[in-house]
Amino acid sequence: MARSSTTKPSAIVDGLVFTAGALMALLIFLGLYSFLSPDPVPNRLSSISLPFSSPRSNHTHEPSDQTFYDDPSLTYTIDKPISNWDEKRSAWLKLHPTFSAKTERVLMVSGSQPKPCPSYDGDHLLLRSLKNKVDYCRLHGIELFYNTALLNPLMPTFWAKIPVIRAAMMAHPEVDWVWWVDSDAIFTDMDFFPPLDRYKDHNMVVHGWPKLVYEEKSWVALNAGVFLIRNCQWSLDFMDEWASMGPPSPNYEKWGKILTSTFKDKVFTDSDDQSALVYLILTGKGGWRDKIYLENEYYFEGYWLEIVGRLENIAVRYNEMEKRGPAVLRRRHAEGVFVSYAKQRDAQLGREKGAISGPKGWRRPFLTHFTGCQPCNGKRNEQYSGDNCTEGMYKALNFADDQVLRAYGFRHASMLSGDVQPLPFDHPRART
């Protein structure tokens, strides 16, 4: 079965999920993803080690030996399965030893629609969101592939990511993990990095709760908008199975009926990627769930509406911690050693009261997911006002950007301001 921490969802989360009913399920569907919050957990998160960034190796030499790339029968499209991928990938890596690494390599993948956004500020918000991901990847020494092409016209909207991830695995045999992050998900803790060692026995990591999968049978028991998936044969086979429940399948309408009857809080009849994923875990169909880790000990992605209102207070608490903490927390440094200082902050958080993840703590949320806001097409859920979504996104983006700009000696004048101001020496202890 899918493994996870034994931590139970908070009462706040249970209330949101079980009392909102069909209306909230529809609300979340329009945003495509779940709204559940991670549980408050002890400060043991501070013990998670962060990978040190390393300069990109020189990969200019390409051996003449033939590899899977020279096989004319192999295709990048999702409709034709790949076999023996682990062996193919291993053989390629032996021919390219410069790609060897002491830590597991990660490729982040995200994307947006091929055409310009119809909403007034949609393209700008997507640009800011892309910058946020570029910043995060640069700080942690990982690669980013941002896609704007629909690789399979029969798999639009939320299904579009599966063909992209499949192609990314083939284009990057050197990476161990592909990390899908929706375009409307914003990194709001630039220090944190997922604890990959925790997932060594699993091939997929998704934000979710076993209780909501197995007992409540809720289609919002997990979130399919952000996940890690290992670059291996298991993952290719799993994505084939997952995609078989999507629009290209002759059984697409049948799957819609099955999913709707299985999940009583699902009020639309189409088969969607998130319901399909919950179904595969719930039923054990194909035996996939043993390798899927349901992460709920931190904000692997978090519902924006319960986060953005707390960002100002979180920023204040971090400033207070750095004021009274050791001088190393305030020391100026080059961006290239960012992770070293992130580890210092993480260690200090472990000594702070209340510095835990979740709605009851003041630790920075790792990823803030703006489900239902639809920044590109502007068709926001009716429960949200345009100002609510837009202001929330700018708050999250500037909150994260301040963490980046610090190495450059600046910060935003406020969380809703595009203006910046210089940081004084010994900030935040110094008077401004």
Structural account:
The structure is a single chain. 34% of the residues lie in helices and 12% in strands. The chain has 432 residues and is of the alpha/beta class. It starts with a strand and ends in a 10-residue tail after the last strand. Strands 1-8-6-7-4-2-3 form a seven-stranded mixed sheet, sandwiched between helices. Strands 5-10-9 form a three-stranded mixed sheet. A two-stranded antiparallel sheet has the order 11-12. Helix 3 packs parallel to helix 11. Helix 3 (122-140) links the parallel strand 2 and strand 3. The protein has eleven helices and twelve strands. The chain has helices at residues 11-31, 85-95, 122-140, 161-171, 210-215, 233-243, 252-262, 273-283, 311-324, 338-349, 386-405; strands at 3-4, 106-111, 143-147, 177-181, 185-187, 204-208, 222-230, 292-295, 302-303, 367-369, 410-412, 420-422. It holds the Pfam family Glyco_transf_34. Belongs to the glycosyltransferase 34 family. It is a single-pass type II membrane protein. The chain crosses the membrane at residues 12-36. One of its GO terms (cellular component) is trans-Golgi network.
